[in-house]
Design brief:
Helix content: 25-40%
Largest sheet: 11 strands, antiparallel
Number of domains: 2
Shape: elongated
Length: 295
């Protein structure tokens, strides 16, 4: 609900609004250059830093739109609310020009030289703003990291299960729970297994019509080397291999499917194509579409 309410935020408009305010205030500042001692370099520094402020406001706005944990108070405390409360940019101009930035431009007149060292005041204010921007960078980076951590696809592998069903051509009268003879599913690249899920048991159930079902629910061993690696590691797999210990070699596979769930949140579904087994395992080579969400 919070995210829906924020979808209408115009983050590009926030940047444009900041940019317009900067341009207007730079025109004001140029009138003080001769009288207040503001040099071209100070104005250039102000322009560069204030532009960065607008960009950071926009970045934070985009994060605010998709992060329920951030509230309005966080947003305004970090960047100030344009036109409603004083921003860092307003503070700088008030320090440099001794004039309220909310004054209408049409009523502006050149003011008398300030008694203080205007360039020093301006540069001090710019230094403070740059420090604030560095803090904003860190805050934005922290929020981006948090968002990535919340995204299931950016998490590391902690657990995985696979439910596998394979139909072979057989009229054998089998209706058995193989308590001590299970199976496996492996994500493989070349001759290397990237991740293997296994079980100690499986089922063989005659379906009629010369169709025998082998079914198993496999899990990832807690000591597996894949634990702690990014889920995206699985996108490097070239094929998926399946085996059931009770299944005889060189069977005619009719069809099947394998549903792999990683961390209880990422679901990968593979279709087992019809094939003649050449050994004691089944191979799924067309896995690109199933792994597409990991790209």
């Amino acid at each position: 609900m919070v995210i829906e309410e924020r979808k209408g935020l115009n983050c590009g408009g926030i940047y444009a609004q900041t940019r317009l305010k900067i341009d207007a205030q730079l025109k004001l500042a140029s009138k003080f250059e001769a009288s207040a001692g503001l040099g071209p370099q100070t104005l250039a520094n102000l322009n560069e830093t204030a532009t960065a402020l607008g960009q950071k406001r926009r970045e934070f706005c985009e994060l605010y739109k998709v992060t329920p944990e951030l509230n309005k108070e966080d947003y305004f405390r970090t960047y100030g609310e344009l036109d409603k409360r004083e921003s860092d940019l307003d503070l700088i101009f008030r320090t440099v020009t001794n004039k309220d930035s909310s004054d209408s431009l049409k009523n502006l007149q050149t003011v008398a030289p300030r008694q203080t060292n205007a360039p020093a005041d301006a540069n001090a204010a710019l230094t403070e703003l740059r420090q604030n921007l560095s803090q904003m960078d860190l805050r934005v980076s922290n929020v981006e990291t948090k968002i990535q951590e919340l995204d299931p696809l950016h998490q590391t592998i902690k657990a995985a299960t696979a439910t596998v069903e394979v139909f072979i051509a057989s009229g054998d009268a089998i209706n058995t729970h193989y308590m001590d003879s299970g199976g496996y599913l492996a994500f493989a690249k070349g001759q290397d297994a990237l991740m293997v899920v296994t079980s100690l048991d499986c089922f063989g159930i005659q379906q009629g019509g010369n169709r025998l079902l082998y079914r198993g629910v496999f899990t990832l061993d807690a000591t597996s080397s894949i634990i702690g690696k990014p889920i995206s590691t699985l996108k490097d797999a070239e094929y998926v291999q399946i085996g059931f210990k009770p299944m005889a070699q060189k069977q005619q596979v009719l069809q099947g499917r394998a549903i792999v769930t990683v961390n209880d949140s990422v679901r990968l579904e593979f279709q087992v194509p019809a094939q003649q087994m050449t050994q004691d395992f089944i191979v799924i080579r067309d896995i690109a579409s199933a792994l597409a969400i990991l790209k």
